[in-house]
Amino acid sequence: MNARVDNLITILDAGSSKSCVLVAELNDGVLRYRGHGIEPSRGMRRGVISDLKLAAEAINEAALRAEKTAKAPIETAVVGLAGRIFAG
After folding, report:
1. In this structure, what DSSP letter does residue 81 have?
2. Which of 72, 77, 79, 82 could form a disulfide with 10 if both were Cys (CB 3.0 to 4.6 A apart)?
3. Are 51 and 43 in contact (CB under 8 A)?
4. Distance between CA atoms of 74 and 4, rounded to whole angstroms?
5. What would the mean pLDDT of 52-73 be, rounded to a whole number?
6. Does residue 35 register a pLDDT over 90?
7. Which fold has domain 8-81?
8. Is the dihedral of CA 39, 40, 44, 50 positive or negative?
9. For the chain, what are the domain ranges?
10. Alpha-carbon distance 10 to 79, whole Å?
11. Angle at 15 between CA 60 and CA 86, to 5 degrees
């Protein structure tokens, strides 16, 4: 894997059916696709995490696949989670 790349943008979308991680590189205001990873979701039900361990494993596997295809380490990510919001 290549050394750290400072201009990478990583997006994680964790859904009920699949978890997707997309890695792009930002240069001079232009995004260039670097890689992605998709993994069937586990531990998620109707947009809510029902089993944290299973959900984390699925997300981690998608991230590892994205790192491999992007040939760069993922250090930070923008995360999208859908579902209900519970107020205390």
Report:
1. E
2. 77
3. yes
4. 8
5. 94
6. yes
7. Nucleotidyltransferase; domain 5 (3.30.420)
8. negative
9. 8-81
10. 9
11. 110
Instruction: Kindly state the tokens that stand for 60.
Output: 């981690």
Which structure tokens are listed for 26?
């930002």
Instruction: Say which residues have a Cβ less than 8 Å from residue 63's Cβ, sequence separation at least 6.
Output: 10, 12, 21, 37, 74, 77
pLDDT at 60: 95
Helix residue ranges, H only, 1-88: 52-70
Phi and psi torsions of 50, nearest 5°: -100, -25
Q: In this structure, what is the dihedral angle of CA atoms 56, 61, 66, 67, given to the nearest 10 degrees?
A: 90
Query: Mean pLDDT over all residues of the chain?
Result: 87
Residue found under tokens 């240069």: 27
